[in-house]
Amino acid sequence: MTSADIRQRFLNFFKERDHKVLPSSSLIPFGDPTLLFTSAGMVPFKPYFLGQASPPFPRVTTCQKVFRSSDIDVVGHDGHHLTFFEMLGNFAFGDYFKEKAIPYAYEFLTKHLAIEEKRLWAGIHNDDDESDQIWTKTGIPPERIRRFGDEYNFWAAGPTGPCGPDSEIHYDWGEEYGCGRPDCGPNCEYCDRFLEIWNLVFIQWNRDESGIRTPLTKKGIDTGMGLERITSVVSQKQSLFDTDPFLPLIEHWEQETMPGAARCCSPTGSSRRTTGAAMSSDV
Ligand code: GLY
Fold first, then answer.
1. Average pLDDT of the chain?
2. Residue nearest atom 2 in ligand 1 by C-alpha distance
3. Backbone dihedral region of 79: left (phi > 0), alpha (psi from -120 to 50 degrees) or beta?
4. Each residue of 102-131: pLDDT tens digit?
5. Using CA atoms, how far apart are residues 213 and 215, in angstroms rounded to an integer?
6. Distances (CA, A) of 69 to 27, 41, 229, 245, 262
7. Which residues line the pocket of ligand 1, CB cutoff 6 A?
């Protein structure tokens, strides 16, 4: 399954569940002085979450081009962080909340992308007993649900605006990729065994400049799943740079810059072309 197939399956899945499919909005947010770039799928919908404008559709789905610099320092180091990427998302403006968002996500991953159930873990906010119950009912057993504070399970598009606790879905690459510590799990600081693939945000506050969170009249759903990350899981490649959105570009530029180069292995385990000189300096 290619990234294009996954994108289409995602949009179709939510279309069949009464979401309006909208095109990606501009990478430069329109009329939003708080952001330089569109950093999430929810950015174009902020006025709807805040109740400042009436949404033309109660449920929406998109594949939004986004740019993030918040973790630019790790881009290129771990194989799963990017600056520019595509984000798949489903959004509800007061129409449904956790009780639907969680089962939708689980159904899409397990039934439509055929991801093994035992590989999925959920991170939830320390205070979120409701999500705990919904996840357990949906299919993730308590031993694969971990609780975290705001550092991991609270989300906002910027310092101000719509925000809320979230629940992240993590993919387990397997014990053999872990650090072996007894408490190894999602957000482990010591290894990359777990990959966060989808963030389900339960929008319920508007945060102001002083950090005060005012409850919104209508709660909303904002989810974000990086297309490149889910493609890496579906194609069982731990590095995003070994998946179809990147390989043709990498191979093209390898050919342009190093014509006639031989193939060798990259640190990520992929096949790469490189020159004899580069090969010897690598060893
Ligand atoms: N809006 C949710 C996310 O980007 O993670």
1. 92
2. 224
3. left
4. 999 999 999 999 999 999 999 999 999 999
5. 6
6. 13, 15, 17, 20, 34
7. 40-42, 155, 199, 201, 222, 224
Closest residue CA from atom 3 of ligand 1:
224
Of 35, 68, 155, best ligand 1 pocket probe by most atoms within 8 Å of the beta carbon? 155
* Position 7, amino acid: R
**How far is the centre of ligand 1, averaged over its atoms, from the C-alpha of 138 (Å)?**
22
Residue 119: phi and psi, rounded to 5, are -85, -10
**Residue ranges of domains in the chain, CATH in brackets:** 3-245 (3.30.930.10), 249-279 (no CATH)
What is the spatial distance between Cα 263 and Cα 236, in angstroms, rounded to a whole number?
21
What single string gives the DSSP state of each residue in 43-70? GGGHHHHTTSS--SSSEEEEEEEEE--T
In degrees and rounded to multiples of 5, residue 155 shows phi and psi of -140, 140
Q: Which atom of ligand 1 is nearest to the CA of 40?
A: 4
* CA of 165 relative to ligand 1 center, distance in Å: 11
Query: Does residue 268 carry a pLDDT above 70?
Result: no
Q: Specify the pTM.
A: 0.90
